[in-house]
Amino acid sequence: MKILITGNMGYVGPGLISKLRQSHPHAELIGYDMGYFAKCLTNVNFLPDNQLNKQIFGDVRHFHESLFEGIDSVVYLAAISNDPMGNKFEKVTMDVNCKSAIRMAESAKKNGVKSFVFASSCSIYGEADDYPKVETDRLNPLTAYAKSKVEAENGLISLASENFVVTCFRFATACGHSDRLRLDLVLNDFVAGAVTSKEISILSDGTPWRPLINVLDMARAIDFGISRNASKGGGFLVVNTGTNTWNYQVVELAEAVAEVIPGVKVSVNPNAQPDKRSYKVNFDLFAELAPDYLPVFDLNRTIKDLYSNLTEMNFNDHQYRKSQYMRLEVLNNLQSKNFLIEDLSWNW
């Protein structure tokens, strides 16, 4: 088996590479990434990409069809990966998250690739906390990031067939430790705040709903997508990916962190503007289709794992929201030094 992973040098990639190396020890794993976040390593013993057979540095917006020769499965992780980045780089977000994903899927199918796995998001449900949303419910994307994921799903539908199986995982909000840790994710941010200042300051009123999934459980789901055939969900599958026990209000997440890390004070902003990004999600379909790939992490274990790793790193950066742990800050820094041009292409 030969698997191509785009965007492997991000937050999800290290855990996915490790999982695939374990599940498919004889597979040829190939990474394809721009390398924006290659240096953002956290508490590692070795470069996680060393477990690949090959690393290619490239832009998903500009690829050659020869990339897909002999490839069996493509995992599309490449993305402008959150709302702050999407808001600043709106056109790039649509180009990378949507248009390039569709073009890659077209080329992959043309070159005999059997499966295409796309990392979508539950954020496409937007303001939808009245009941847990299922895959057939109306979508309400509120941001450039969410809209790009909807458009990508729509563009991939017509490409799918029994011989080209497309799986779109609508992932819950990612959390947990990674060899390339992000702190611009709600739970990770709370743990970082607790470690550095013994305070968690919730920027909203704490009431918005978020479903969560540990980043290592995302890797388990993607492994299912790689091996899935059309008899399990059809040639084209969109599936909410997470677990029903992980639907939490933001304030509940902060309180859970305070229970694990002693002496932490939680505060909310009662005067905050309402956060319309509030949604509960139903994950029954994923449980039905992929019983052997269900999440194994719970909230408590995830918090303890983050706490342990940050402690081992002697993490004490009170200004972490302006550091390399925030993906937008990395891009801003690269642009300020003229390494990236306006469209986030390398300046060489």
Write the layout of secondary structure elements.
Layout: E1 2-6, H1 13-23, E2 28-33, E3 54-57, E4 73-76, H2 83-88, H3 90-110, E5 115-121, E6 127-133, H4 144-157, E7 165-171, E8 173-175, H5 186-197, E9 199-201, E10 209-214, H6 215-227, E11 236-241, E12 247-249, H7 250-260, E13 265-267, E14 278-281, H8 284-289, H9 299-312, H10 327-336
Parallel strand pairs: 1-2, 1-4, 2-3, 4-5, 5-7, 6-14, 7-11, 8-10, 9-13
Antiparallel strand pairs: 10-12
Description of the structure:
With 348 residues, the chain is an alpha/beta fold. It has a single domain (2-336), classed as Rossmann fold. It is built from 10 helices and 14 strands. The strands form 4 sheets. A 7-stranded parallel β-sheet has the order 3-2-1-4-5-7-11, sandwiched between helices. Helix 1 links the parallel strand 1 and strand 2 (28-33). Helix 5 crosses helix 7 and helix 7 (250-260) crosses helix 9. The protein is globular, with a radius of gyration of 19 Å.
